[in-house]
Amino acid sequence: MKFLDISRDFTFKGDGGSVVTKRNFNLLSELGTTDSFFIPVPSLKTRMLNFLYRQSYGATSALNIKLRECLNREYDFVFFDGSIYGGYLKRVSDAGFKTICFFHNVEKVYYEAKARHTKAVMDMMMVPYITHNERLSVGHASYIITLNQRDSDDLLRFYGRKADLILPSSFPSLELKASDIKTPAYLLFVGTNFFANVEGVRFIIEKIAPQTIMPIKIVGNVNEAFKDAALPDNVEMLGRVDDISSYYRNASAVIAPIFSGSGLKTKTVEALRFGKTVLGTSEAFEGIDIAHNPGIGAVCHSASDFVSAIRDLSPTAINKASLSLFEKCYSDNAALSALRNFLDRIVQ
Prior knowledge:
Helix 1 (about 15-30) packs across helix 13 (about 330-345). The protein is built from 13 helices and twelve strands. It is globular and about 60 Å long. About 45% of the residues are buried. The chain has a six-stranded parallel β-sheet with strand order 2-1-3-4-5-6, sandwiched between helices. By secondary structure, it is α/β, with parallel strands linked by helices. The chain has helices at about 15-30, 45-50, 60-70, 85-95, 105-120, 120-140, 150-160, 195-210, 245-250, 265-275, 305-310, 320-330, 330-345; strands at about 1-5, 35-40, 75-80, 100-105, 145, 165, 185-190, 215-220, 235-240, 255, 275-280, 295-300.
């Protein structure tokens, strides 16, 4: 098969969205020949023009010309990695191409939550603009893929259409050895500097850390939001790191007090990949069947729940239940099989 993959540039960022975008490109490349069409992060001027004229996010004259050239080629499917490119998706659909739209979030839900958190006028103004593009994506995509069932349900509720395939985040499998894991014990939080992670870190600092002696390491540029914050003695802000894998490998558990957002939390899947117990809110486990896999961790609804779960942590270095669930549902092999079966069903 021949694919055109339209996405943001996933080659220079390591946030959860970029990880999934890169995964999607790799899956398509495993299943056929794939051309890339990158939409760069738009300048402020471009964003303003996109907003005023209700254009596809990041649209420019140069990209319009490039897209027109791409549409002179033949593709079995044009894969849109994200629902914010609705103007471009409609254009591709109108040109007669079969399109697949992959939803990282229901962006309407995400941007509404962001606006509530920041209370910034620009964020509030973005909600109807993003919703407009997302509605175009839902209306003109030949097929829709979401990360979890909740997002599919939300699409049906807001736009009248559910997903054709649910394809969770995934990662390559790892070879893990308990003997490679170093001590002493610590809890790990991983996150970039965006509002849901800021909420989570603030909750750790104010509500969880003062009630436990367990060291807590916070990795990622979320620390930029806490440059002037007074930290408990057991909290260490590490910021960006060159290799996050060692922090996952050596952690006793991953802690995820996430209260806002949409989609599926990449940090939770990554924790399962490293065989880690996950202590998280219901939002952190959204799209992950902890009810039938209780051994992977604990759902915590309050600070006292987190503290109790931390106290009850097993000293086991590798959680076999987490690894088993990862291999079955969230490994790249599982994702590749699911996408291949889906394409085999819809290809004409």
